[in-house]
Design a protein that fits this description.
The structure holds 2 protein chains of 2 kinds. Chain A contains 4 helices and no strands. Chain A is 74% helix and 0% strand. Chain B is mainly α. Chain B has one domain. Helix content of chain B is 74%, strand content 4%. Chain B contains 11 helices and 2 strands; from the N terminus they run H-H-H-H-H-H-E-E-H-H-H-H-H. Chain B has a two-stranded antiparallel sheet with strand order 1-2. The radius of gyration of chain B is 18 Å and the shape is globular. Classes of the chains: A mainly alpha, B mainly alpha. Chains A and B meet through helix 1, helix 3 and helix 4 of A and helix 1, helix 3, helix 4, helix 9 and helix 10 of B.
C-alpha cells in the first residue's frame, strides 16, 4: 500500500522532470538559433575568465533581456527553467509527502527546498 | 573560426561526451570539463558552468526511464539530498576562493578515481551486518524487484553515508560535475544499498545537487549562455542515445578505451594545474 503510493509519487516526479527538461531544451534551441543568426563574427576570447555579462547574472536581468528579445537572455531563460526543474521535484516531495501524511519527509523536502532557494540569494 | 563552426564543434564534442558518459556510467560532466579546458582552451570557470547545466539536463532527462524500472528510493534520495545540497553550496562558494589551477588539479584526481571506480564490479547486495537503528527510525528502507519477487533492504551506516554525500556535493559544486561515482560509493559501499537502487537514486539526486550550485554559478558569471547552449543540448542528446544502447550492448572494450582517455585527461589536468596553466 505504502509502496504503491511511493511509486505513484515517483512516477509523477519522473514525468514532471521529463516535461521540464523538454520545455527548457526547446527554449534553449530557440534562443540558440537566434544567437547563431545574429552573431556571425569571430569567436570571442574564452581563454580568460571575465564573468558573464551582468545581464545574465540574475533572474531579473535575464527576464529583462528576454523582454527585449536578446538571444542570449532567451538561452539563459531556458537554463533557468532547467534549474527550476529539479527544484520543482523537491516541491512535489513537499506536497506528496504531506498527502501521504509523512510529516518527517515533508519537512526534509522543505529543508532541501530552502537550501536550493538559498543558492539564489548569494551575492558574488 | 567563426561563431557557427565553434558552436557546432562544441555541440559535436558534447554529443560524444554525453554518449560516452552514459555508456560508461561516469556521466557527461566528468568528460566535458577537461575537453573544454584542454581541447577548446576555455577557462575552467566557464567550463564548469556549462558542464553543470548539462548535468542537470541529463539527470532530469533520464529520470522517467529510471522511475519505470522501480528501483529508485525517494525517501533515501530526499534525505541524502540535505547533505549533497549543503555540500554543493560549500563547493560553489569555494570555486571563487581557490584558483583555477587548484580546481583543475582536484578535477584530475577525481578523473583518475572515476576511471578506477568504473571498473569495479557491481557487488551482490549484502545483508550481513545489522540494520542501523537510525535507518529504521528514519524509514530509510524499501524493496526492489529481483527475478519477479520483491526483496527488502534497509540502509546501514547512515551517518557515514551522509558524510560522504556531503563530500560528493562539495565536489559537484566545486567541479561542475554530477559526482555520481561518489554518490554511488556512499550508497552501495557504505550504506550497503543494492547496486541498482544506488545508481538510480543517485541519478535523481544529481539534478537536485547541481541545482543547488547553479544559483551561485549564475550570480558569479560562470554560466555563459552561448557556451552552455551547445554543451547542454549535445550532452543531453548523447546521453539519451547512450543510455538506450547501454541496455543492449556489451561495452567492456569501449569502457577500456574510454578509461584510457579519462586517465590521459586526468594526468593532463593535474599537470596543467601544477604548472599553473589553468
Amino acid at each position: 500500500m505504502l509502496h504503491r503510493d511511493d511509486q505513484r509519487l515517483e512516477t509523477a516526479m519522473g514525468r514532471m522532470l521529463q516535461i521540464g527538461v523538454t520545455v527548457a531544451a526547446l527554449v534553449v534551441v530557440v534562443g540558440g538559433a537566434a544567437y547563431l543568426t545574429r552573431f556571425t563574427g569571430p569567436v570571442p576570447d574564452y581563454t580568460r575568465f571575465h564573468g558573464a555579462p551582468p545581464a545574465y547574472e540574475s533572474v531579473p536581468g535575464i527576464l529583462h533581456g528576454v523582454s527585449h528579445f536578446d538571444s542570449g537572455s532567451v538561452i539563459a531563460l531556458g537554463i533557468l527553467l532547467l534549474i527550476a526543474t529539479p527544484a520543482c521535484r523537491v516541491l512535489f516531495g513537499v506536497v506528496g509527502f504531506s498527502m501521504l501524511k509523512d510529516r518527517f519527509y515533508a519537512l526534509v523536502s522543505v529543508v532541501v527546498l530552502i537550501i536550493l532557494l538559498l543558492s539564489f540569494c548569494t551575492r558574488r | 573560426m567563426t561563431v557557427l563552426t565553434f558552436t557546432l564543434a562544441l555541440f559535436g564534442t558534447s554529443i560524444l561526451a554525453g554518449f560516452l558518459g552514459a555508456l560508461t556510467g561516469l556521466g557527461g560532466g566528468v568528460v566535458i570539463v577537461p575537453v573544454l579546458c584542454v581541447l577548446f582552451k576555455i577557462d575552467i570557470h566557464y567550463a564548469i558552468g556549462a558542464s553543470l547545466v548539462s548535468v542537470i539536463a541529463t539527470s532530469s532527462g533520464a529520470a522517467a526511464a529510471y522511475v519505470r524500472e522501480g528501483y529508485s528510493n525517494i525517501r533515501i534520495g530526499m534525505f541524502l539530498e540535505v547533505a549533497t545540497t549543503l555540500g554543493a553550496l560549500l563547493g560553489a562558494y569555494l570555486t571563487a576562493r581557490v584558483s583555477g589551477n587548484w580546481i583543475g588539479g582536484i578535477f584530475g584526481l577525481v578523473l583518475l578515481y572515476s576511471a578506477w571506480a568504473s571498473f569495479r564490479k557491481a557487488p551482490a547486495a549484502t545483508n550481513s551486518s545489522t540494520p542501523d537503528p537510525l535507518a529504521m527510525r528514519l524509514n530509510l528502507r524499501g524493496s526492489y524487484p529481483v527475478d519477479g519477487t520483491k526483496e527488502d533492504y534497509v540502509a546501514r551506516h547512515v551517518p557515514a553515508g551522509f558524510g560522504i554525500m556531503f563530500v560528493a556535493g562539495t565536489l559537484s559544486g566545486l567541479l561542475g560535475i554530477g559526482s555520481g561515482a561518489v554518490k554511488v560509493l556512499a550508497m552501495d559501499q557504505v550504506m550497503k544499498l543494492p547496486f541498482k537502487v544506488s545508481t538510480t537514486t543517485s541519478n535523481f539526486m544529481i539534478g537536485v545537487t547541481a541545482a543547488a550550485s547553479a544559483g551561485v554559478y549564475l550570480s558569479r558569471g560562470y554560466i555563459l549562455p552561448e557556451l552552455s547552449m551547445p554543451v547542454m543540448l549535445g550532452v543531453l542528446a548523447g546521453a539519451l542515445v547512450g543510455s538506450r544502447i547501454l541496455v543492449n550492448a556489451r561495452v567492456q572494450a569501449l569502457r577500456l578505451v574510454f578509461s584510457v582517455v579519462i586517465v590521459a585527461l586526468g594526468v593532463e589536468m593535474i599537470f596543467n594545474g601544477l604548472t599553473g596553466r589553468l
